[in-house]
Amino acid sequence: MEPLRNYFKDIAIHNILDVGTGNGGFLHTLQNTFPGAKITGIDPNTESLEIARQNFPDVTFLEMEAENLKFEDDSFDVVSISMALHHLPKVKKGLKEMKRVVKPDGYIIINETISDHLNPAQEVHKMYHHFRSHIDRMLGRFHRKTFTKDAILQILKETEVPVQFFFEHRRNVNLIEDEADLELRIDKMKQMLEKIKGHPEHDALRLQVDEFRTKAMEHGLQAATNLVIVGRKKIFT
Ligand SMILES: C[S@@+](CC[C@H](N)C(=O)[O-])C[C@H]1O[C@@H](n2cnc3c(N)ncnc32)[C@H](O)[C@@H]1O
Fold first, then answer.
1. Which residue, by CA, sits nearest to atom 17 of ligand 1?
2. Is residue 237 part of a domain?
3. 232, 161 contact by CB (below 8 A)
4. pLDDT per residue over 27-54, tens digit each?
5. Which residues have any ligand 1 atom within 6 Å of their CB?
6. Does residue 163 sit in helix, strand or coil?
7. CATH number at residue 211
């Protein structure tokens, strides 16, 4: 992410904590933005951490929740969270913990998919994502719909994380190149539906699969816009 690299190009960053690191989807961006920095990734999901360990041997991974970080106050130059804010059962508690463990002159980076400012192909992606999050919730997993841009900025205001810089990141790549790609997505949706077979909402969700097919054929499918925010622990003038 070029704006992030430019922002940090003259700032010395030695150690980073990536919260909700999962399979490590944000680690390449962190490694490119902060070459040579020591990175620790935390996530409560054991299987995801196993995959991340295989792919990023130089990163330290620990099983932990954002809302209860087992680090001393003021430990990291940067604390990041990518695509995981809407997975946190207690978002504000998680952000307060991130703020606690970042150094007084450190930075908080948030990379989060948003539900507004989307073109029609991205709206199709939102439909797919919200279908998944709906089924996750029915299965008892915490997974909310994505936040709007303003909702994220408001949460940061309420958790007193001063925002220093933000930008919207769009990839403009059609994720469905041919019919086979579309069928793969639809198969995934059908596999998810299988998990809630017999549930009263099953039929309504099945209709969403048909709607997804129609809209994806009409508009294509593009990843939703991400809001990327650089926040601070306190206001610097
Ligand atoms: C969509 S993945 C994002 C992974 C990665 N950060 C990325 O950008 O691709 C969301 C991650 O949030 C994690 N998560 C869920 N609840 C969490 C919590 N309470 N604290 C920290 N991470 C959590 C999930 O286990 C999952 O790995």
1. 88
2. no
3. yes
4. 999 999 999 999 999 999 999 999 999 9
5. 19-22, 25-26, 43-45, 48, 65-67, 82-84, 87-88
6. strand
7. 3.40.50.150
